[in-house]
Amino acid sequence: MPLNLFSVSLPSSTFSVKTKRTCPKVGAYICPTSGTRVNCKRMHPNFSKLGTSPLKTKYLCSSEPCFSTANSGIIMNTHRVVGDKDGLIIVDHGSRRMESNLMLNEFVNLFRDKTGYSIVEPAHMELAEPSIKDAFSVCVQKGADRVIVCPFFLFPGRHWHQDIPHLTAEAAKEHQNVSYIITAPLGLHELLVDVMNDRIKHCLSRVAGEADECAACIGTGRCKLY
């Protein structure tokens, strides 16, 4: 019997993710998620704390930040870090616009280069290829005994709660001894503030004639004042 993805409850500490990004805040800092006072020069964002944010909006991740299954009931890989036997699938929605789909390939290449992970594959939930099933098979062919599906989505809507788990479970049926996990979407994270702020600054520089078009809007002519 296949495992019910929605009944899995894993400890939130398992998903504490740290990064070496330098924190812009120096000295005492009140953490927005835990409310504790932090004295540091570098902040390590902790994804496991996102579900306890005082904002309490429907867009926050739940206390169960991802879905996991051992597939046939045999847990082949239980490491808390990404290893050589892990295959990562970065999945977006998919688009009828080819340029948009190709941008996912560029992001996957960038992600692979920056992280050094050996098996990283792109996938589209719908409308384009490769599918989640295709990417899952490629990961296994390259030697993965655990597949980590990473939704390239901001918030946990229907696609994360239903569609991606269903498609991944279907893909895993052909690889009974391969476990998999579906990570939380990007959610609310302070590093996304930096990303948006960088985008704003670049677009304003483009309008002022001081920067070229970015990869997202090149050739569209949309980066302008109206």
TrEMBL record:
Entry-linked InterPro entries: CbiX-like, Sirohydro_Cobaltochel/CbiX
Gene3D superfamilies listed in its UniProt record: 3.40.50.1400
Keywords per UniProt: Lyase, Metal-binding
Signal peptide: none
Molecular function via GO: lyase activity; metal ion binding
RNA-binding in keyword set: no
Keyword Lyase: yes
UniProt-recorded name of the protein: Sirohydrochlorin ferrochelatase
Organism taxonomic ancestry: Eukaryota, Viridiplantae, Streptophyta, Embryophyta, Tracheophyta
